[in-house]
Specification:
heterodimer, A: alpha/beta, two-stranded antiparallel ribbon, 31% helix, B: alpha/beta, Rossmann fold, globular
């Protein structure tokens, strides 16, 4: 995916979120570090542009809720930033770059449950590469990217990596 | 991280990693549900051969907030009072499946022996050994200083340019030793102030300045004053004539508190001897960080247990693994 493809996908996801929520009311965007946070910021800015209302954007770190911690070298957690209004009764849209096994999202749902009780939780993903291991599906997808299990999908975003692109390696 | 035994061998990167993870742990403590599932199924043993209330409770709280199981073991009322050796005690804990052992011992070096003897495979955290080190206390002190100085911008920052003055019974204090090493690793300048009888003989090898007059040290405008507890239980010999004289010359009273520059803070590792090394005015002033230190202690110990226990336990762990 090129920079233009990513921009187009983000724009469409922003419109779809506004459409399914019937406007920007009660929306909270939470990005999953690292690149999900960048994407959430972008989608938040686009939603503000399209609806004229700025929606709260934050970050939700899932490191301490992962089920594979003891199988990997110690992961360094990232900061979690919940917007001032909290998540209780809100429609929380989780934002991440790649959806693969679904285990990060499972961890994110657990983390969210410890923070509050949203009215609904949705999932926005830039790239869905398949190979789910849990019954989790995205509500908003930038691109379906069929891939082999052993392939690597690399998402680079300008705020983190200096360039916007998605490649398979 | 395999063990946490001292701050002398802790690198700047390792120390900052613990402090930064502690920031994340601190953030989780403001949530509706403060318990994290991270260490579910792990067992942490608090092995305390010396009396301690706050350190043991702090480790217990930290382990429980990470969902680890906690077994408290104190020497009083255990087989140790029947003469069981450290080796037998350790091997018993190993057989029970301890994943981490938090040890406090009166003998300097006991945690080191536990970690290197091969008696146990668990991670070892030093919670104070003799007059050697108390690394988690120093880490929570550094965390508290950093938080007061930089607030929400603390992540990733060291203490370069900060001047910390440590006052009191340096001779018997493992807290002072751990702080000297950690604070200088983080770039701070450390001054020790004590009666000549309470300055260790080997102090010339430490990266510190030593003063004997507290008023001169306060005139040097430190950013943080750390008052050490006078450890009356370790005062076998007479190190100063009377408590009153000590308090007059090296205690932080209201006058000295007022002489401190604006913005400088007062730390005390607790428990405090009010009226001896610290006056009630100083202990209860807005400069005092005593209660913040207690709260931050739980976050720092959560970080230490997380880094010790959460990852795959292999010797060859890549330290700087990031997502």
């Amino acid at each position: 995916m090129s920079s233009a493809d990513i921009a187009r996908a983000s724009t469409r996801i922003s419109h779809e979120i506004l459409e399914s929520n019937k406007g920007p009311d009660g929306l909270v965007l939470l990005g999953i570090p690292t690149r999900g946070v960048t994407l959430a910021d972008r989608i938040g800015a686009l939603i503000a542009e399209f609806s004229g209302v700025s929606v709260p954007v934050g970050a939700l770190d899932v490191t301490m809720y992962r089920d594979d911690l003891h199988r990997n070298p110690t992961r360094t957690p990232h900061p979690t930033q919940i917007p001032a209004g909290g998540v209780d009764g809100k429609t929380v849209v989780l934002v991440d770059d790649v959806l693969f096994s679904g285990r990060s999202i499972r961890a994110a749902l657990d983390a969210l449950g410890d923070i509050g009780r949203p009215a609904a939780v949705r999932l926005a993903i830039l790239v869905d590469r398949g190979h789910r291991e849990l019954p989790i599906r995205p509500d908003f997808v930038g691109k379906n990217l069929p891939s082999a299990r052993n392939e690597r999908v690399n998402v680079r975003l300008s705020a983190v990596d200096g360039v916007d692109e998605v490649t398979i390696g | 991280m395999r063990h946490l035994l001292d701050t002398k061998t802790l690198s700047r990167a390792q120390a900052l990693r613990i402090l930064d993870v502690a920031e994340d742990m601190r953030d989780t403590q403001t949530r509706e549900v403060r318990k994290l599932p991270t260490l579910r199924g792990k067992t942490v043993v608090n092995l305390f051969f010396e009396d301690s209330t706050r350190t043991r409770i702090s480790f217990e709280a930290a382990a429980k907030r990470l969902s680890a199981d906690v077994i408290n073991f104190s020497a009083k009322g255990s087989s140790v009072s029947k003469g069981e050796s450290l080796q037998d005690t350790a091997q018993t804990l190993q057989a029970m499946g301890a994943d981490a052992v938090v040890i406090r011992h009166g003998a300097s070096g006991a945690p080191q022996i536990l970690a290197t003897s091969g008696w146990i495979s668990a991670g070892v955290v030093n919670a104070g050994d003799g007059t050697h080190e108390h690394p988690t206390q120093a880490l929570l002190d550094a965390f508290t200083i950093r938080k007061r100085l930089f607030g929400d911008d603390s992540r990733g920052r060291d203490l370069a340019g900060t001047h910390v003055t440590i006052v009191g019974d340096v001779l018997h204090s493992r807290v002072a030793r751990s702080n000297v090493w950690l604070l200088t690793t983080l770039g701070a300048r450390v001054t020790l102030v004590a009666p000549p009888t309470l300055v260790p003989q080997d102090v010339s090898a430490w990266p510190v300045e030593v003063r004997f007059d507290l008023d001169e040290a306060i005139a040097a405008a430190p950013d943080a004053m750390m008052m050490l507890r006078i450890q009356l239980e370790r005062m076998g010999a007479a190190y100063f004539p009377t408590e009153r004289e000590y308090s007059r010359r090296w205690g932080l009273d209201a006058r000295r508190l007022d002489a401190l520059p604006a913005g400088s803070i007062v730390l005390h590792p607790g428990p405090m001897n009010r009226g001896l090394e610290i006056s009630a005015d100083a202990a209860d002033s807005p400069r005092s960080t005593v209660l913040e230190q207690v709260a931050n202690g739980v976050s720092v110990r959560m970080a230490a247990l997380y880094l010790l226990l959460a990852g795959e336990r292999t010797e060859a762990n890549a330290e700087e693994y990031a997502r």
